[in-house]
Amino acid sequence: MGVKATTKYFWAAAAWVAVAGAQAQSPERTVHGVLGVGLTGGGDSLATVVFSNGTTRDVRAGQLVHVFGGAEFRVAPRVTLLATAGYHVDDSGGGNGSLRFSRYPVELLAHVQVAGPLHLGGGVRFIGDAKLDGRGVLGGSRVDFGSTTGAVLEGEYRVTPSIGLKLRYVHETYKTKGVRVDGSHGGFYFSWII
After folding, report:
1. CB 49 within 8 A of CB 64
2. Taking a C-beta distance cutoff of 8 angstroms, is the pair 56, 48 a contact?
3. Domain span at residue 9?
4. Full DSSP string of the chain
5. For the chain, first and last CA: distance in Å?
6. Among 84, 11, 1, 69, which residue's Cα sits nearest to residue 35?
7. Which of 11, 52, 98, 109 would suit a FRET pair with 85, their CA atoms being 20 to 30 Å apart?
8. What is the pLDDT of residues 123-141, one digit of tens each?
């Protein structure tokens, strides 16, 4: 899945949210914007960068920072659907170069309010334009990965109606030139419901 396919999924999700919001009959607003950021860890090591002082750092297929935006809409009193598009990256940045694994996930999730502020949910994650790319002295090193689809499970605690803290697990696998790479990871997220 390249950038065009990822963009297609994003616009399809945005249209779906817009239509659902327009059809809502409740006087209470049922569509909300969502912004979020998460710290993730896990997945196979894609490369090890050795710095001039002798220290090393792995670039992994399941980490480091995931930022996203999208829309949440209520389909029942205790059920919401969430559509987001984001950017997920791990970077080994150094003074004279860096190695970065970046990807653009589009997620379609459903959540159920199980008890008070606790919500449990999951869904599907589409990944496009995943690549390992070097800059500076590591320039010219690039590995493109094919598109992939993963599964998401998460629990969210709504600290307030507009602030959520999430724990999540994602299962996904990347492929390049016949090699499979495990990108599965866990993460801790902060989300802001607008």
Report:
1. no
2. yes
3. 3-193
4. --HHHHHHHHHHHHHHHHHHHHH---SS--EEEEEEEEEEE-S-EEEEEE-TTS-EEEEETT-SEEEEEEEEEEEETTEEEEEEEEEEEEE---SSEEEEEEEEEEEEEEEEEEETTEEEEEEEEEEEEEEEEEEETTTT-EEE---EEEEEEEEEEEEETTEEEEEEEEE-EEEETTEEEE--EEEEEEEEE-
5. 30
6. 69
7. 98
8. 999 998 899 998 876 677 7
| Cα–Cα distance, 149 to 168 (Å, whole number) | 16
pLDDT in tens, 7-43: 565 565 555 555 554 444 454 668 999 999 999 999 9
Domain count, the chain: 1
Q: How many CB atoms lie within 10 A of CB 180?
A: 10
Report the CATH number at residue 8: 2.40.160.20
Q: Is the separation of the CB atoms in 52 and 67 below 8 Å?
A: no
